[in-house]
């Protein structure tokens, strides 16, 4: 793979300033002779690039040697077309566990301790205390984390630290530290049956699209909460709305949605026990530094004639 120039696409500005990554990578690649520059994803902007770091896909990327996604998920990218064009696709798996784990811990505590209600009351200048039996503590409750990759392991660590008992679901039910029981995907409904919190942390693939639908939601207890930090398409959103309206589950904390931004007329905005966040569970001021660390190792490997880190295609 030829690697003389890496572009940092302007789309990463949704997560961090592109210039921060350009400067960080530029300092790290001085010895390798690789140039790093900001680009706009257009054919003209990409003309001299061999690789790009990006949040989104552009058609001009099909003429490159390497595309790196700053996210762990690669569902935004046409993998078959990239493969046919001989373009390597890599992702940022492994850098999000801490941030997403802490976000999930925050959701869990907010729902149990009713913090989201206090925040809503504050905007209305209202002094509202919960009923005597409305708030509860999470220690001793059970969570089920669906997906035990980098995200899932970060979530497990935070939840066990809060005193929750944790089960897990993944394709290959091998034991996982901190997880009491690991279920195969085919036993998902059984796995969620006694969980107070069901946490989704799987990538969006053909196999996981619509993974949680009417039957899975019906298998959850009526005092359980769904937390989605995976992708919106993993959940049948209309089934979720119906389950919330019919009190089949207690509530949800959702960072991702079928349509983003979440439309203003979505009923999900209006449920008292639904927390909506704008697909930012992984955000941290160190995000660009974490991406740079992955890329620095990839540049070194490519220079040695090896594959870059986290190659997907």
UniProtKB/TrEMBL annotation:
Identification of the protein by name: D-2-hydroxyacid dehydrogenase
Family to which this protein belongs: Belongs to the D-isomer specific 2-hydroxyacid dehydrogenase family.
Keyword Ligase attached: no
SUPFAM superfamilies recorded: Formate/glycerate dehydrogenase catalytic domain-like (SSF52283), NAD(P)-binding Rossmann-fold domains (SSF51735)
Keyword NAD among record annotations: yes
Membrane-crossing segments per the record: none
UniProt entry keywords in alphabetical sequence: NAD, Oxidoreductase
Domain D-isomer specific 2-hydroxyacid dehydrogenase catalytic: 57-312
Organism: Halosimplex pelagicum
A molecular function GO annotation: oxidoreductase activity, acting on the CH-OH group of donors, NAD or NADP as acceptor
D-isomer specific 2-hydroxyacid dehydrogenase NAD-binding domain residues: 106-281
């Amino acid at each position: 793979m030829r690697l003389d120039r890496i572009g940092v696409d302007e789309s990463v500005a949704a997560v961090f300033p592109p210039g921060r990554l350009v400067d960080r990578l530029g300092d790290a690649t001085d010895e390798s002779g690789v140039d790093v520059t900001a680009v706009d994803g257009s054919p003209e902007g990409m003309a001299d690039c061999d690789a790009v770091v990006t949040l989104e896909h552009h058609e001009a990327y099909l003429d490159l040697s390497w595309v790196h996604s700053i996210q762990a998920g690669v569902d935004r990218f046409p993998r078959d077309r990239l493969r046919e064009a001989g373009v390597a696709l890599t992702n940022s798996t492994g850098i999000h566990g801490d941030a997403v784990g802490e976000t999930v811990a925050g959701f869990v505590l907010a729902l149990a301790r009713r913090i989201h209600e206090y925040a809503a009351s504050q905007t209305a200048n209202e002094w509202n205390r919960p009923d005597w039996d409305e708030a509860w503590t999470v220690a001793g409750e059970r969570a089920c984390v669906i997906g035990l990759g980098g995200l899932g392991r970060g979530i497990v660590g935070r939840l066990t630290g809060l005193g929750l008992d944790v089960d897990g679901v993944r394709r290959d039910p091998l034991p996982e530290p901190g997880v009491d029981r690991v279920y195969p995907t085919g036993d998902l409904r059984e796995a969620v049956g006694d969980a107070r919190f069901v946490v989704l942390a799987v990538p969006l693939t053909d196999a996981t699209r619509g993974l949680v639908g009417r039957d899975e939601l019906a298998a959850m207890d009526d005092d359980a909460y769904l937390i989605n930090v995976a992708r919106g398409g993993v959940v049948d959103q209309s089934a979720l709305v119906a389950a919330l309206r019919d009190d089949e589950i207690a509530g949800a904390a959702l960072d991702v949605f079928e349509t983003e931004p979440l439309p203003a007329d979505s009923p999900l905005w209006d449920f008292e026990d639904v927390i909506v966040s704008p697909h930012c569970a992984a955000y941290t001021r160190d995000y660009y530094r974490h991406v740079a660390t992955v890329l620095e190792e990839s540049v070194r490997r490519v220079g040695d004639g090896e594959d870059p880190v986290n190659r997907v295609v």
